[in-house]
Amino acid sequence: MNIEHALAINGFMSEQELTYIAETARKSRCIVEIGSYQGRSARAWADNTEGIMFCVDTWRDGGEEDFDRNLSECKNVLKVKIDSRQAAMLFQWAGIRFDVVFIDADHDYANVKADILAWRPLLQPDGILCGHDFLNSQWPDVEKSVTELVPNFRVIESIWTTEGYK
After folding, report:
1. Cβ neighbours around 99 below 10 Å, total
2. Strand partners, 104
3. Which of 26, 62, 80, 165 has the most other CB atoms within 10 Å of its CB?
4. What global pTM score does this model have?
5. What average pLDDT does this structure show over 27-51?
6. What's the domain count of the chain?
7. Domain range holding 70?
8. Average pLDDT of the chain?
């Protein structure tokens, strides 16, 4: 497991959360991260999977140059610079299914709910739906959306995940 490069990137993931990501990535061949900012969590996914990693973000809030620099060594990362739901429609059309869908984009109720609904159908049958900022007082809508739409999940610091509920 390698989180050394991820820890060196500015971001909002703790070491324990990055460790969970790295351990999950080791068992996954096709991963999509919705919301990648500067690439801290994306680097943990990419460094620990033998498969492919899609990073979906508009980078409207900045961080794109940092993301490009932080992930430049990762040959298994494909950057998808479009809106989350547009990306979901493209992947649906292409018939691509994911081992892991990680949601960490807009944190308001409507967008978290829309992301869960758009991406959940793109999971492999035993796929893991997960995301960031659960139980974070700054983002109460994440907790509300996940609690309403995801029947079985557990929490690791502020990552919510369906892993372990198959």
Report:
1. 19
2. none
3. 80
4. 0.96
5. 97
6. 1
7. 4-161
8. 95
